[in-house]
Amino acid sequence: MSEGTGIGASVKRREDVRFLTGSGTYTDDLNQPGQTYGVFLRSPHARARIGAIDASEALALDGVLAVYTGQDSAADGLGDLPCGWLVKSKDGSDMVSAPRPPLAVTQVNYVGEPYGLVVGETLAAAQQGAELVMTDFTELNPVVDPASAADSETIHEGLDSNVVYDWGLGDEEATDAALAGAAHVTQLDLSNNRLIPNAIEPRAAIGVYEAASGDYTLYATTQNPHLERLVLAAFVQVAPEHKLRVVAPDVGGGFGSKIFIYPEETIVLWAAGKLGRPIKWTAHRYESFLADAHGRDHITHAQLGLDRDGRFVALKVSTTANIGAYLSTFGSSVPTFLYGTLLAGQYKTPNIYVETLGVYTNTCPVDAYRGAGRPEATFVVERMVETAARELGRDPAELRRLNMIQPEDFPYETPVALVYDTGDYEASLDKALELADYGGFEARRRESAAAGKRRGVGFACYIEACGIAPSQLAISLGAGVGLYESGEIRINPTGSVSVFTGAHSHGQGHETTFAQVVSDKLGIPFDDIEIVHGDSGRMEFGLGTYGSRSLAVGGSALIVAADKIIAKGKKIAAHMMETTDDNVDFEDGTFSSGNQQATIQEVAFASYVPADYPEDLEPGLSEKAFYDPKNFTYPAGTHIAEVEVDEETGEVDLVSFVAVDDFGEIINPMIVDGQVHGGLAQGAGQALMEHGRYDDYGQLQTGSYMDYCMPRADDLPDFVVDTTVTACTHNPLGVKGCGEAGAIGSPAAIINAISDALDGHNIAMPATSEQVWRALGGK
Amino acid sequence: MDQSGEYRIPAERADVWRALNDPDTLKRCIDGCQSMERRPDGGFAAVVKARVGPVRAVFNAALDLADINPPESYTINVAVKGGPAGFARGSAAVTLAAQGEETMLRYAASANIGGKLAQIGSRLIDGAARKMADDFFKAFHAEMSGRTPNPAPRPQDDGRAAVPINIQVNT
């Protein structure tokens, strides 16, 4: 561990002081003068026509101020919530978007869909009012099962079917031919269970409208305040962009679920304008279960062809993706471009074809959740590879090694549209094998067997595309916005530094990591640097945080801004030293030329008090930069899980887990370890416990912690995490991103381990004790 | 959710039938019943304050009677609306068998629930439904014995007559 506070030092997270002492400022902690409270009316039905809404009793109640319905917002011209990524079907046609008004107007399409807002002087009044609103629903047949959704009654009036798109990527003909000629073909039916995000802080919003200025302010739990502002201004048209400020204060976890532009935040802001008073809404946990965008939910059939030597010759993957009732903000891209493009994994499979049928169902919209498409891709690839090894009697580690892309192959162009810039996959594999004592596994298996337990080991050699995303590539693939990031470094006259980033921290530790980067780059003490984020009123623009992008893209923007600071500083220093700027060096916070020196603080002061100053230079030392990545980054690694299965009860004990990841250069190893730990816990949750389930009528059966099981510390082993390093070749920090890897690799590794313990049984997620017990023949 | 049960009622079948069709008796026997009215079409409209686990609400229930075969059997179709608390919908086939001066009441019910009831209460709804049925028949038993319902059994009360003889719950 490197000492100090620069790059490579495990600096304790400065934000944790306020988080751990209860002094963070979350949206619900904020209050506005004259504030009122909103409670949403939510559909109890999976699919129903909305008839008369009788709010008379509610409005007669003391303290109820207003009841707004979808009719009101539609009449006011409020636009639909858009999907930000246009995916095209194989035949070139655009995806089919069902209009999604922020409040349902004529028909509700999932349980929990908001169709009205009751506003009260107090929360109690609003809640009581909501209970008194009588709504006539005419129930319609719901479509719940994605497997049959394409052939079921059409959910949305005016659409031809429930198919959103029928997307494909790769060369189908060549893949089929290679499969036909393969010496061995492994086939599996796989499902990727629906997950419900469960950030510790529920979503919340406060809408504020000031009549005198016409300004709107939205305080909200968002991972990307500028994107929220952009969509609310351009598409929903609540207010023009220059009259709308979006503030995301401390946000307690997102995992993707707070990226999206939701109905509730939109309506709270709009209604505040109608009412002329601020409105606060904080989701009850039951609302989070119902109405935070869910994750995953795939059904897949896959075939992997191998030649006589065990080399992969072809992978064909056919997936049905449950989109939910509407296309959420990025719901279209997750099961297509964030999924199909990762199916090469770490291997030189020459022929790959993937097709995804996206379908509407009467369930909560599905969108990005930690990993977003990449855990699903890893699960397919690594389940296939592990199964092929078993079928062929090959060691699963060695079969992987045989097929891995080698360091000399980079840059490596996959058959599914990506170019990996760098990596050393065997290095991670070897380190993981050593840390997991793979050689000692058979002895441990015998020990477990002697104790009446079945032991299994499972691998996942994952890859992910992070640092989202090169704008031109993303836009050419259908993205509606660029995916660069902005940063600004202001050196104040006294030498302290205010850094503004368009990335948003909701648990990632940016206030620490980004300060380390700037401190290291400019040689300014860590404690003199403040990181400001999450306010469209304070920073120019930003695309926010998701897709493990903050450091690779947002951090790189700060490096570009710092380079501009140094370049300008050199000009000022050159003037001070009576030389030219090409004769000035900058190192460790000091400009020097020959034996003359000036600290960056002295140069900054000179820039703000330009008594003796270059004529052609503007005063001040503040620089902005936008950084657009040239490629994705490709973190990769090997995860190895070991489990013990109790034959009597089917209970799975995750006894050890080794994760060796290549995240490129690392700024703060402790924060990286923490990110990996959290991701692994979420992946273990998906593999072993979590499952968002609807019944045949579209009622959410897992709508509370009684029925939706989350992992706890005592469910998890002491994770062994380590890293290998190949620096990213195309960003100035050489970083790749670490936020999602844990959740990407671990489900496949854990399920492979359980499958190993069950003699190759294709166990589905979540592998609950009941599922495992049944697989063992229990009845 | 499916549920069935048997109760021995200490009254003749014709009296039991009459009582089961009397809104005032029903109102007295249903815990939390705020009103019970006979509709012109023969059904009932009820307002009941009830609680299922953490879900507490005033429910509006519409009860429609079908397959009426006095004094032996009928089917009750129920639609319950609880606003934000959710809804329930179901039916119960009820038969009355004369056993001397007593009557054996059997019912088989099935129901679907939705909204918050399903989301939060699904694990609790079976127990809650069974308790509501038990409470109803305990009170109904007391009513038919000519006593006011009293939850604390007196010494001479065997305390078991109102207890279900057989209840099965299948989800």
Number of helices of chain A: 20
What is the CATH architecture term of chain B?
2-Layer Sandwich
The averaged pLDDT of chain B comes out at 84
Shape of chain B: globular
Helix-and-strand structural type of chain B: alpha+beta
Number of strands of chain A: 28
Tell me about this structure.
The complex is a heterodimer of chains A (779) and B (171). Chain A has 779 residues and is of the alpha+beta class. Chain A has three domains: 31-140 and 200-253 and 258-291, Aldehyde oxidase/xanthine dehydrogenase, a/b hammerhead (Aldehyde Oxidoreductase, domain 3); 298-468 and 631-775, Aldehyde Oxidoreductase, domain 4; 484-627, Aldehyde oxidase/xanthine dehydrogenase, molybdopterin binding domain (Aldehyde Oxidoreductase, domain 4, 2-Layer Sandwich). Helices cover 28% and strands 23% of the residues of chain A. Chain A has a seven-stranded mixed sheet with strand order 3-5-1-12-9-10-11. A five-stranded mixed sheet of chain A has the order 7-15-14-13-8, sandwiched between helices. Chain B has three helices and eight strands. Helix content of chain B is 26%, strand content 46%. The longest helix of chain B is centred in the last third of the chain and has 29 residues, at 116-144. Chain B has one domain (2-170): START domain (Alpha-D-Glucose-1,6-Bisphosphate, Chain A, domain 4, 2-Layer Sandwich), CATH 3.30.530. Chain B has an eight-stranded antiparallel sheet with strand order 2-3-4-5-6-7-1-8. Chain B has 171 residues and is of the alpha+beta class.
